[in-house]
From TrEMBL:
Lineage of producing organism: Bacteria, Pseudomonadati, Bacteroidota, Sphingobacteriia, Sphingobacteriales
Keywords: Signal
Protein name per the record: DUF4836 family protein
Top-level taxon of origin: Bacteria
Signal peptide (from-to): 1-21
Length: 656
């Protein structure tokens, strides 16, 4: 009975801890642009807490901050066992950011803030500490929140909005000689910005008592323009000043600068007011939280750091200043642009000695089905034997050319048609004409869509070039010279079941003396022999293009030597797209090419001999998500990749 009670109690404690760990994500508003989640527990564990302390100590973190924490991050008062979150949200007038993290010792945390000043009571049990303009820190016994605000620089470009807040646009221009009235309308009188009198709604008190949430959006906060109009001051005195008088231009500049200072003062006052309102709403819980579905996407199977964008399409539009682009005036409406993208996730993770950056984007149903058809092709198994132990790197991509050509007109019309507004019907007509003109099946026979580019080591090439000699009168004479260059050897190959068109083109080039053929290998020299010739080989159902005739000749005679690179073959076979480079081969390759990285990078390049491969891969569409991954295999250590990186940073700090 006692053991059952212990098990039940343990389960309740576990559930309570799980709920508490999720509390911070519930503080994130629903209408955010992006959220970054930090798995502090895993970061500290994988970085090794002792190494992290050593790194911070050597970097001067504890000393510079004046922190009495015995050089241990565990004594900072921050709860390193719970996730921390950062997010951004914006209105048409202002952008807000917030960084939230949990505390386990408020007293220790307050010791970090001594340089910023004494904490003051704020709202809803929170204390506040003054920071630089446009930012503030609020905290209670369990949570700390850094909140900052940045005004949208284009918000006040609208004359009616600027006028609402008493902001006047000024230009530093000279008075037109023939237009006294126009000058009177555009000249701004000088004034000291210190003379601006703010009402109590705008002026921020030094000691802020618990504020009351204001149910208005930032861009609707109005200041009485009449109350903040500048007093009229004579900029040049009672006597008229001639335009040629230098004091005339000095007065213009003074008026210009004074009005700009006043405008800045108004903007800064609004920024502080809006920031205060935002903090008040957040602490009062007046914002609807991120949906449970979005919360799950932020937290489920999270690596070390996760970046989550709830609405990729909205974020893209927000980054596109379409109103200021010339396309807007040509009838192209970027606000009608559709991507078919939904949410986006980017994960930074560690798996043993491998660091990974994983990304995925949700697609709407139509785009997901369309993309699956376009990438419904497997890698050509014949490619495998060309990935050998000599291979430095490769790139492989597989698309279904027939499906791609069939789907693209419909894709362009659906997702890009809205850009052209009234011209959308012209685009649709053109795409239809293109679809009729193309024979997708015939093109797919010539080039089905699987491609492989392989870099297999280096080779010395003879290169002709033109030099000049000069006589005593500096008359130049061309001299043809030859030199050797060591260059990477590459082969680009793709499947072609119908090679008639390609072969006809090659034979036409030979007949016109543009190229030549020997033992089935076509050679083409470039202009003035300044570069390495290119070679083409047709073998079975493969077309191969290379800068090395010897490699193609070996392939033609089936003399490819060396065992296959199993890691590269596995990457190629398991992905729709893959690219990889063997980092440990890179130092020898650069040395053989005569490339000197300099002393600063020489040691780092030498260490690459211990590294594995770095790769970018994509499995295409998984469910309704397009996935891509980048990985790098670091030297094998008992503590893993992050710990290895910490060691390298500490080594560099010890050198200073």
């Amino acid at each position: 009975m006692k053991s059952k009670f212990i098990l039940v109690a343990f389960a309740c404690l576990s559930f309570g801890a799980s709920v508490q760990a999720q509390d911070l994500i519930k503080q994130v508003p629903e209408d955010v642009e992006l959220v970054a989640a930090f798995n502090l527990k895993d970061i500290v564990q994988k970085a090794n807490a002792n190494k992290l302390n050593e790194l911070l100590q050597k970097a001067g973190f504890f000393e510079k901050a004046g922190i009495s924490a015995n050089n241990d991050i565990k004594n900072l008062g921050v709860d390193l066992s719970k996730p921390a979150y950062f997010y951004t949200r914006k209105t048409d007038s202002i952008s807000f950011t917030e960084f939230l993290f949990s505390l386990n010792n408020k007293g220790q945390f307050e010791q970090l803030l001594h340089a910023a000043g004494e904490p003051k009571a704020f709202s809803n049990g929170y204390s506040s500490v003054s920071l630089k303009a446009g930012s503030m820190l609020v905290y209670n016994d369990h949570i700390a929140r850094f909140i900052s605000a940045t005004a949208n620089p284009t918000f006040f470009d609208n004359d009616s909005i600027a006028g609402r807040y008493g902001i006047k646009k000024v230009d530093y221009i000279a008075r037109p000689a023939d237009d006294e009235d126009a000058w009177a309308d555009t000249t701004v009188v000088a004034m000291d910005s210190a003379a601006v009198v703010w009402d109590e709604a705008v002026k921020l008190p030094e000691q802020v008592s618990p504020p009351v949430a204001i149910d208005v959006e930032p861009d609707t906060v109005e200041l009485a323009a009449a109350e903040i109009q500048p007093p009229v001051v004579d900029v040049v005195g009672s006597e008229e000043v001639e335009m040629h008088d230098p004091s005339y231009y000095d007065s213009l500049y003074t008026a210009y600068e004074d009005q700009n200072r006043k405008n800045d003062s108004i903007r800064n006052g609004l920024l502080e007011k809006w920031l205060l309102n935002e903090a008040t709403r957040l602490l009062a819980g007046n914002y609807k939280s991120l949906s449970s579905a979005d919360q799950e996407k932020v937290q489920k199977n999270m690596g070390l750091i996760r970046l989550y964008v709830p609405h990729v399409e909205d974020l893209y539009r927000g980054l596109t200043p379409y109103t200021s682009l010339p396309y807007y005036y040509m009838g192209i409406k970027l606000d009608k642009f559709k991507t078919g993208y939904q949410d986006g996730i980017l994960d930074f993770a560690q798996e043993g000695s491998v660091l990974k950056l994983k990304g995925s984007v949700g697609l709407d149903k139509g785009l997901a089905e369309m993309t699956k058809r376009m990438y419904a092709r497997k890698p050509n198994s014949k490619f495998s034997k060309y990935l050998t132990d000599k291979t430095l790197g490769f790139f492989n991509v597989n698309i279904n050319s027939e499906a791609y050509l069939t789907e693209m007109p419909a894709y362009m019309a659906k997702y890009y048609g809205g850009l052209l507004g009234p011209q959308q019907d012209v685009l649709e007509w053109g795409l239809m004409a293109l679809e009729i003109a193309l024979d997708e099946k015939a093109i797919a026979q010539v080039m089905p869509g699987d491609h492989l580019v392989v870099v297999n080591g280096l080779r010395k090439f003879k290169k002709d070039y033109i030099d000049y000699t000069y006589d005593d009168d500096y008359n130049a004479t061309e001299v043809k010279k030859t030199k050797e260059e060591t260059l990477p050897v590459f082969i680009w190959m793709f499947t072609s079941k119908d090679q008639r068109l390609i072969k006809k083109g090659l034979e036409m080039a030979v007949s016109k003396h543009v190229g030549q053929v020997h033992d089935g290998i076509y050679a083409f020299s470039t202009k003035k022999n300044m570069d390495v010739p290119m070679y083409v080989l047709l073998k079975e159902d493969l077309v191969m293009v290379s800068n090395d005739s010897l490699s193609l000749n070996d392939i033609r005679q089936n003399k490819m030597s060396g065992p296959t690179n199993k890691d590269f073959v596995k990457l190629m076979k398991q992905n729709k797209m893959s690219a990889a480079m063997d980092l440990k081969k890179l130092p020898d390759m650069l040395k053989e090419m005569g490339v000197s990285p300099g002393k600063q990078w020489e040691e780092m390049l030498t260490q690459l001999n211990q590294y594995g491969s770095t790769a970018i891969t994509s499995k295409g569409i998984v469910g309704n998500r397009a996935e891509v991954e980048m990985s790098t295999r670091l030297p094998q250590t008992s503590d893993g990749a992050i710990s290895y990186l910490m060691d390298q940073i500490i080594i560099e700090l010890n050198k200073k």
